[in-house]
Design goal:
Strand content: 15-25%
CATH superfamily of the largest domain: Type I PLP-dependent aspartate aminotransferase-like (Major domain)
Mean pLDDT: 97
Distance between the termini: 25 Å
Number of strands: 15
Helix content: 25-40%
Largest sheet: 7 strands, mixed
Low-confidence stretches: none
Bound molecules: pyridoxal-5'-phosphate
Number of domains: 2
């Protein structure tokens, strides 16, 4: 990182201090040093303005420094920050859960509050194991569920995330329906193949399958949208083997695909829902929902320190109310369809683009060196990202050679065009040099 960029002394200085004091385990894609942000824009310490096409990794779904959210946080600051909710009682966390419950089926009538995506997944894992009293879990290739040991056991997006961290908890990984990379390149064959492998694996653990964990659209793994029949098939296998379907909506949820839950696009109802990122409006917050009958664990089986943090709940309530009031999902679908259409047009012009896929404002563009062999164009993808960054557009990588487009859901058509023009220009430059 940082070799292809013309950095100011201010930026260099902070990067240097960061390198000395911060753990070296994080991936920083660009030398962006944040100063402030508003709506769709982020400003760095040199006051350079960037159009945000990643919503700080699918967190700032209603844009940056939303007035209603900031006011709700300010108001709560007068009353207190932390009340040890897992040990005492307070109204705000109850109101937060009641607010979330408005957006999901009545089936999901109880929740546990936490602080992050990984914690919401760990909660689901423990909840499923407790309830079923079974040992095994199935997760998918390319999955990303987090980086703590339970969720990491299920994550299988990049080898670097797992190397040296085993032994893991008992998890079996099976292929996700990634039609573009299935040898048949045929939707039906891909679905049949993946469901057969899933069923074989479910059978192999001999009545000891607690849960199947699934992202309804894989995020980190490459913005992979499975066919409807696949998601329905996973539900049926859960029913057949008496296992719980745990739906990881940490990245795809909260109206990113138009619906509150991405799994609604597949007409499937899970047993446990994991949410985080955008549900706190920028303050760390995780929530795991299920029916009360599944949450038959007793006092002391699970808890934490910061779950139900008052500032996080105030921020989360204001964020969700804003989403509801402004029908944010509708804009996600409208602008998402427009962006996808433009990207498909780009695919006609640039052979580097192998695939364009997505629902709402969760869109992936996969780059390949050769459309027949589908060889990953990782270096080219990285060059495109760097060029976009230099031109004032913030995008993020996913999978091996995918660019993910997940802007705040408040994006206008005009802003979408601005970003897409920068992206197209950058693709053109990289393609002209290489081909
Ligand atoms: C689908 C999914 N699950 C879980 C996580 C983990 O969330 P966190 O980084 O907040 O622990 C992520 C993070 O990107 C994610 O995309």
């Amino acid at each position: 990182m940082a070799d292809n960029f013309n950095l100011s002394t201010k930026t260099k200085n902070i990067l240097k201090r960061d390198k000395i004091s911060l753990a070296n385990c994080m991936t920083r894609e660009y030398p962006l040093v944040y100063k402030k942000a508003k709506g769709m824009y982020i400003y760095d310490i040199n006051n350079k303005k960037y159009l945000d096409f990643c919503a700080s990794v699918a967190v700032m779904n209603i844009g940056h420094t939303n007035k209603e959210v900031i006011n709700a946080i300010k108001k709560q600051l007068n009353y207190g920050l932390h009340c040890a909710f897992p040990d005492f009682y307070a109204e705000l966390p109850v109101k937060y859960v009641e607010t979330v419950k408005q957006f999901v089926s009545k089936k999901f009538n109880q929740a546990f509050l936490s602080n992050s995506g990984t914690e919401s997944v760990e909660t689901a894992l423990k909840m499923a194991k407790w309830h079923t009293n079974k040992k095994w879990v199935i997760a998918f290739e390319h999955a990303f569920h987090g980086r703590t040991m339970g969720s990491l056991s299920m994550t299988k997006s990049k080898p670097v995330q797992r190397d040296r961290f085993g032994p893991f908890i008992p998890v079996k990984h099976v292929p996700y329906a990634y039609v573009y990379r299935h040898p048949s390149n045929d939707e039906q064959e891909c679905v049949n193949d993946c469901l057969n492998k899933l069923e074989k694996t479910a059978k192999s653990v001999k009545n000891n399958l607690a849960a199947i964990f699934m992202e309804p659209i894989q995020g980190e793994g490459g913005y992979i949208v499975p066919p409807k029949e696949f998601v329905k098939g996973v539900r049926e296998i859960c029913n057949k083997y008496d296992a719980l379907l745990c739906d990881d909506e940490v990245q795809a949820g909260c109206f990113r695909t138009g619906k509150f839950l991405a799994i609604e696009n597949f007409n499937v109802t899970p047993d446990i829902i994991c949410l985080s990122k955008s549900v706190g409006g920028g303050i760390p917050l995780g929530i795991t929902l299920a029916n009360k009958s599944i949450q038959d664990w007793g006092p002391g089986t699970h808890a934490n320190t910061f779950g139900g943090n008052l500032v996080a709940c105030a921020s989360g309530i204001a964020t969700l109310e804003y989403m509801k009031k402004h029908n944010i999902g509708e804009n996600a679908v409208k602008i998402g369809n427009y962006i996808k259409k433009r990207l498909i047009e780009m695919k006609e012009k640039y052979i580097l683009i192998g695939d364009v896929r997505g629902i709402g404002l969760m869109i992936g563009v996969e780059f390949v060196k050769n459309r027949k062999t589908k060889e990953f164009a990782k270096k080219e993808r990285d060059k495109i990202l760097n060029k976009c960054f230099n031109k004032g557009l913030i995008l993020l990588a996913a999978g091996t050679s995918v660019i993910r487009i997940c802007p705040p859901l408040i994006i206008t058509k005009n802003q979408a065009d601005k970003g897409l023009n920068i992206l197209e220009h950058s693709i053109k430059e990289v393609q002209n040099v290489n081909y």
